[in-house]
Amino acid sequence: MSRFNKRYTGIYPLLLVLLIGITLCSIRYGAVQISVKEMFSGLNHWFSSPASMSLNERIFMEIRFPRAVLCVLVGASLAVGGALMQSLFRNPIVEPGLVGTSSGAAFGASLYFVLGSIFNFSTGEWTLPLAACAGGILATFLVFILSESRQPGRNSVVALLLTGIAINALFISGVGFMSYMARDPQARSITFWTLGTLSGANWHSVMITGFTSVVCILLALRYTKHLNALMIGEEEAQFMGVRIKRLKLIVLLINLVMVAVATAFTGVISFIGLIVPHLLRIMAGSDNRYLVIGSALMGGILLSLADLIARLLLQPAELPIGIVTAVVGVPVFIILLRNRNYYF
Amino acid sequence: MLSAQNITYSIGNKTLLHDVSTTFKPGKLNLIIGPNGAGKSTLIKVLCKQIKPAQGSVYYGNKAVEAYTDLELARIRAVLSQNIELAFPLKVWEVIMMGRYPHFTTKPTIKDDQACEEAMRFFDVWDMADRDYMTLSGGEKQRVHFARVVAQIWYPVDGSCRYLILDEPLTFLDIHYQFQFMHKIVELLQHGDIVVVGVVHDLNLAAKFADKITLLHKGGVLADGKPKEVLTQEFIKEAYRLNPVLVEDQEKESLYLFFE
């Protein structure tokens, strides 16, 4: 085997086993315990005789199972989005949320909730994600346009991040305004949104998120080599044949669609996109192909774990998951920042 | 052969390059010198297709640079720029493998591996293959990048020369490695199909190694030719505003410059 072909044979199987294990745990445990036997019989009845399902079997098939799968998909989307953005901006503290995508998506969704209640839209499965997507795209492009330096070819990451903070504040206050204007059921939906929750998971949201996340991650894998080249600089990447402008556009779009759709069904979940790529880099280096595959697995692991904690901590009530990821994510992030042996 | 024909480039009212024409031949060491602000970096950028001149064109062989896609260009031409900073930690071999990126789609082939290994041995960085790039000294980093750009054009290309463009490559190197690097470049030139164009500041180094020197001054070519034709009292005085003492060693055919 060539020394130039680093393989991650140890890491991928480990992550995969962890992912499956934690997913099974999060299906099994909760306000109601579901035994493995009930899982099998539930699966069986779902296809053979849906009418004769027991309560636990219904909880398994209609609530826990789709929720666990959505968790994995959303975690993967956010983590891969984080890995892509960090590589694209050559900066380790970028996450999808920092450049406005998630707050924009939250704004789009809250606008949809409020307008929907006023004008009585038919609430199709695609309209909410589309509204969230549109909001995410709007906010992200605002950030990039406003942070663009007047001198061509120079992009200041500080300007980008500060603009991101400003635009985030704007869109979050927009969400606040919408929830202030909204009537009670809509206002509650909006509040849950800004904190993140997976309680609305169903097979439709799983299908849609599954489709966008799988397509986007597979697309992202095609550009990992280009993103690697970017690590030594934009000009250098160009000298190696990378078309920078096109790459930026494609990767931004992948990230936008993936994160906006994930956010559309679960609300704003912070820190997953930031932490996961860091942990993977500490484990086995910065190669983007490994980071994308690893993030897809590890994002699912961490979000499932957070969801399990969110459901078990205040049983039978449930915490918004964004609170859990923030409480766990902030200390990890601060430890990473203070660790000078790392690359800050 | 790499040639610039009547290149003019300006930003706003300031003309950075004015009607610059010069030709760089394969198998020869072509060095560009000139005082600060003479337009050296701008000329390099034009040669690399980084910026488009207002007038004139650059030719790689018989083909204008615009006729190449970035990828086609990357397969025949490598560029070493100044001040490279890595955004994330990488192993040395990962940095060098980047040089092969234009040549493979997802996985490096055996040929790519071989190019990297040979380039690393050539520049004496093979032993640090598994070290973290971030822990290297400035000079070691520079050698890693030499290996990377040379790996990029390691194999001859059918129907085309290979081009190596170096923008102040010696900045972080001590005298030993400056000389070692120049000797390596001379060794590479033995292949005969490599066009090397480099910007340097050290006039003595240019005098010792260059086959052709292009002296830029105020955005134009002040002198262009063999070291002895370019490094003369009057040209140096005009460009650098200093009076050089030129010492010529007839026996070794070498030229030394001193400044007081």
Describe what you observe in this structure:
The complex is a heterodimer of chains A (344) and B (260). By secondary structure, chain A is an all-alpha fold. Chain A has one domain: ABC transporter involved in vitamin B12 uptake, BtuC, CATH 1.10.3470.10. Chain A has 14 helices and no strands. In chain A, helix 3 runs parallel beside helix 8 (203-222). The longest helix of chain A has 34 residues, at 55-88. The model of chain A has no long low-confidence stretch (mean pLDDT 82). Chain B is an alpha/beta fold and 260 residues long. Chain B has a single domain, classed as Rossmann fold, CATH 3.40.50.300. Chain B has a 6-stranded mixed sheet, with helices on both faces. Chain B has a 4-stranded antiparallel sheet with strand order 2-1-4-5, with helices on one face. A two-stranded antiparallel ribbon of chain B has the order 11-12. In chain B, helix 6 (175-189) links the parallel strand 7 and strand 8 (194-199). The chains are: A mainly alpha (344), B alpha/beta (260). At the A-B interface, helix 9 and helix 10 of A face helix 2, strand 6, helix 3 and helix 4 of B.
